[in-house]
């Protein structure tokens, strides 16, 4: 079974954000594909792209990257049987209000929003690990690193704090 993540970005300009997601997917050795399409600007083509994955016998999780007004994530979610995670790029223009277009969804749409690229990759990995023991193992080792880092930091600050206990 070859589980994979399909990242769809709304514009080539989102490539940098996509690469941050890819970094974590690569660390987890999780296969991925990068696609560019827009629900706003190329709806028919987007539906064709989705259709091409619908028959897959392997599990897929989509991560959608759409800045400004995010139609992409909801349109993908409404037209696929696979889960969709929205990971919009951060923008502080207009006081960061773009994010609301990812959060407020019509009924029947279920695309969660994760703002941090590595968080979106991790959620996709956790979903796919439900069907893949080896991925579950890699994910567990990846997450152990964070606990180990915290332990090291704890030991370091403790050593400087003059605590007597
Ligand atoms: N939000 C969407 C959609 C969509 O939701 O269909 N299509 C493009 N975009 C986003 O608009 C920003 C500027 O896009 P352009 O570069 O096409 O002007 C990008 O962040 C893109 O993801």
UniProtKB/TrEMBL annotation:
Its EC number is 4.1.1.21. Pathway: Purine metabolism; IMP biosynthesis via de novo pathway; 5-amino-1-(5-phospho-D-ribosyl)imidazole-4-carboxylate from 5-amino-1-(5-phospho-D-ribosyl)imidazole (carboxylase route): step 1/1. It comes from the Bacteria. InterPro entries: PurE_classII, PurE_dom, PurE_prokaryotes. It catalyses: 5-amino-1-(5-phospho-D-ribosyl)imidazole-4-carboxylate + H(+) = 5-amino-1-(5-phospho-beta-D-ribosyl)imidazole + CO2. The keyword Lyase applies. It is an enzyme of class 4 (lyase). Substrate binds at residues 11, 14, 38, 41, 67, 69. Residues 3-150 form the PurE domain. One of its GO terms (molecular function) is phosphoribosylaminoimidazole carboxylase activity. Keywords: Lyase, Purine biosynthesis. It holds the Pfam family AIRC. GO terms for biological process: 'de novo' IMP biosynthetic process. Catalyzes the reversible conversion of 5-aminoimidazole ribonucleotide (AIR) and CO(2) to 4-carboxy-5-aminoimidazole ribonucleotide (CAIR). Belongs to the AIR carboxylase family. Class II subfamily. This is Phosphoribosylaminoimidazole carboxylase. It comes from Thermogemmatispora tikiterensis.
